[in-house]
Amino acid sequence: MDREKLQYFKELLLKKREEILREVAETLKDLEEGSENLPDAVDQAARETNLVIGLRLRDRDQKLLKKIEKALKKIEEGTYGICEACGVEIDEKRLMARPEATLCIDCKRAQERLEKIKGE
Ligand SMILES: [Zn+2]
Which residue ranges form the domains of the chain, and what is each CATH number? Predict the structure, then answer.
Protein backbone atom coordinates (compact mmCIF):
# COMPACT_ATOMS: atom_id res chain seq x y z
CA MET A 1 0.00 0.00 0.00
CA ASP A 2 1.42 3.41 -0.85
CA ARG A 3 2.06 6.16 1.67
CA GLU A 4 -0.85 8.31 0.64
CA LYS A 5 -3.28 5.49 1.22
CA LEU A 6 -1.66 4.59 4.51
CA GLN A 7 -2.03 8.18 5.61
CA TYR A 8 -5.68 8.10 4.60
CA PHE A 9 -6.38 5.01 6.65
CA LYS A 10 -4.41 6.38 9.56
CA GLU A 11 -6.62 9.44 9.64
CA LEU A 12 -9.69 7.24 9.35
CA LEU A 13 -8.52 5.22 12.35
CA LEU A 14 -7.68 8.27 14.43
CA LYS A 15 -11.07 9.79 13.71
CA LYS A 16 -12.82 6.57 14.63
CA ARG A 17 -10.89 6.34 17.88
CA GLU A 18 -11.82 9.89 18.77
CA GLU A 19 -15.50 9.20 18.11
CA ILE A 20 -15.51 6.15 20.34
CA LEU A 21 -13.76 7.95 23.18
CA ARG A 22 -16.23 10.79 22.96
CA GLU A 23 -19.18 8.41 22.88
CA VAL A 24 -17.92 6.48 25.88
CA ALA A 25 -17.45 9.69 27.84
CA GLU A 26 -20.95 10.88 26.96
CA THR A 27 -22.59 7.56 27.74
CA LEU A 28 -20.94 7.36 31.11
CA LYS A 29 -21.99 10.90 31.89
CA ASP A 30 -25.58 10.15 30.86
CA LEU A 31 -25.65 7.04 32.99
CA GLU A 32 -24.36 8.91 36.02
CA GLU A 33 -26.80 11.74 35.61
CA GLY A 34 -29.61 9.28 34.92
CA SER A 35 -29.12 7.42 38.16
CA GLU A 36 -28.81 10.62 40.16
CA ASN A 37 -32.23 11.72 39.01
CA LEU A 38 -33.92 8.51 39.96
CA PRO A 39 -36.15 8.80 43.01
CA ASP A 40 -34.93 6.58 45.81
CA ALA A 41 -37.82 4.20 45.43
CA VAL A 42 -37.19 3.67 41.71
CA ASP A 43 -34.82 1.72 42.59
CA GLN A 44 -31.63 -0.09 42.92
CA ALA A 45 -32.57 -2.36 40.02
CA ALA A 46 -32.76 0.45 37.48
CA ARG A 47 -29.45 1.77 38.68
CA GLU A 48 -27.85 -1.62 38.28
CA THR A 49 -29.31 -2.09 34.82
CA ASN A 50 -27.77 1.19 33.75
CA LEU A 51 -24.47 0.10 35.12
CA VAL A 52 -24.58 -3.22 33.32
CA ILE A 53 -25.42 -1.53 30.03
CA GLY A 54 -22.59 0.90 30.59
CA LEU A 55 -20.09 -1.82 31.31
CA ARG A 56 -21.16 -3.90 28.34
CA LEU A 57 -20.84 -0.92 26.07
CA ARG A 58 -17.43 -0.19 27.44
CA ASP A 59 -16.36 -3.76 26.91
CA ARG A 60 -17.36 -3.60 23.25
CA ASP A 61 -15.75 -0.20 22.75
CA GLN A 62 -12.63 -1.35 24.50
CA LYS A 63 -12.27 -4.24 22.08
CA LEU A 64 -12.72 -1.91 19.15
CA LEU A 65 -10.23 0.55 20.60
CA LYS A 66 -7.68 -2.21 20.96
CA LYS A 67 -8.19 -3.18 17.33
CA ILE A 68 -7.72 0.43 16.27
CA GLU A 69 -4.51 0.71 18.29
CA LYS A 70 -3.27 -2.47 16.69
CA ALA A 71 -4.07 -1.21 13.21
CA LEU A 72 -2.25 2.06 13.90
CA LYS A 73 0.77 0.09 15.01
CA LYS A 74 0.62 -1.95 11.84
CA ILE A 75 0.70 1.24 9.82
CA GLU A 76 3.92 2.21 11.61
CA GLU A 77 5.35 -1.25 11.04
CA GLY A 78 4.33 -1.38 7.41
CA THR A 79 2.12 -4.44 7.75
CA TYR A 80 -1.20 -2.63 7.55
CA GLY A 81 -3.83 -4.03 5.21
CA ILE A 82 -2.37 -7.52 5.13
CA CYS A 83 -4.53 -10.39 6.33
CA GLU A 84 -3.11 -11.88 9.54
CA ALA A 85 -4.33 -15.33 8.70
CA CYS A 86 -3.49 -15.86 5.04
CA GLY A 87 -1.24 -12.92 4.12
CA VAL A 88 -3.22 -11.53 1.20
CA GLU A 89 -3.93 -7.82 0.91
CA ILE A 90 -7.27 -6.94 2.46
CA ASP A 91 -9.70 -5.38 0.02
CA GLU A 92 -9.56 -1.59 0.28
CA LYS A 93 -13.33 -1.26 0.25
CA ARG A 94 -13.41 -3.48 3.30
CA LEU A 95 -10.77 -1.34 4.98
CA MET A 96 -12.75 1.81 4.26
CA ALA A 97 -15.75 0.36 6.04
CA ARG A 98 -13.66 -1.24 8.79
CA PRO A 99 -10.22 0.33 8.88
CA GLU A 100 -9.38 -1.75 11.98
CA ALA A 101 -9.85 -5.05 10.13
CA THR A 102 -6.93 -7.48 10.39
CA LEU A 103 -8.45 -10.31 8.39
CA CYS A 104 -9.53 -10.49 4.76
CA ILE A 105 -13.21 -11.15 4.20
CA ASP A 106 -12.71 -14.88 3.55
CA CYS A 107 -10.75 -15.41 6.75
CA LYS A 108 -13.18 -13.25 8.69
CA ARG A 109 -16.10 -15.37 7.51
CA ALA A 110 -14.23 -18.54 8.39
CA GLN A 111 -13.53 -17.13 11.85
CA GLU A 112 -17.16 -16.18 12.36
CA ARG A 113 -18.25 -19.68 11.37
CA LEU A 114 -15.88 -21.10 13.94
CA GLU A 115 -17.12 -18.75 16.64
CA LYS A 116 -20.69 -19.70 15.85
CA ILE A 117 -19.89 -23.38 16.18
CA LYS A 118 -18.09 -22.76 19.45
CA GLY A 119 -20.96 -20.63 20.73
CA GLU A 120 -23.65 -23.23 20.04
ZN1 LIG B 1 -7.12 -13.99 4.81
Answer: 3-119 (1.20.120.910)
